[in-house]
Amino acid sequence: MRYAIYFAAGADDPLMQLGNAWLGRDPFTGSSLRQPDVDGIDASRFQDLTDSPRRYGFHGTLKAPFHLHPDVSETALLDACKAFADDIAPFEIKGLGVNRLGKFLALTPDQNEPGLAAFAAICVHRFEMFRAPLSEADLERRRRSNLTQKQDAYLTGWGYPYIFDEFRFHMTLSNKLEDETEAGKIAATARGYFSAVTGEPRICNSFALYVEPERNAPFDVHTVFHLTGETSPVAAESHAALLTPKENA
Fold first, then answer.
1. Domain range spanning residue 180?
2. How confident is the model at residue 242, as a pLDDT?
3. Predicted confidence band at 241 (pLDDT cuts at 50, 70, 90)?
4. Are 40 and 185 contacting, i.e. CB atoms less than 8 angstroms apart?
């Protein structure tokens, strides 16, 4: 079993409902959903072009999937999630938009969002004690992406290469789109489809623990935690950074 700390909201949140239907699966129930129609792309092709993010469930990565360290338990992880939610205050972002992220399509912030970046960084710090070291096979798989020296250091030190100053928040909407014509059609549809939840400020007041029961199984929502604390993500991240060993920073 693997766990992941993801940016997500409750099942009734419009962002989650639209994202789940876009990918064709509800990670709250495990049920399949009808995907929207994309002009010029048949349904089976669109299903194929979204199969990778479908397995992971609609989300934004905060603490990437990890095996639980043998010295800790799921109960301890859940307790830590609850304590984290009780400590950190809700924060606002200016809005998300449908954008290209390399060859992928994703919902990404429309501008720099220091609160969101700090929230992701503090998640990396706060839940590191629960992560088992990566296997050699997982390290090798990640390194196929031609990581920079810094990204490789983050991978070996923290289990994921795209953290801290390498982090870019995204809620993935597709596999790699190699065909530019297909990419354009999907992007145009996505911009209309997500218009009700993009381009407007959003209060971020929750995150979720997702679980993968066995390797290559779909990820499902275990628990959504609501932020009720008084510490801003920026303040929490600044404190955590002071405690971070320089070789892992």
1. 2-129+167-243
2. 52
3. low
4. yes
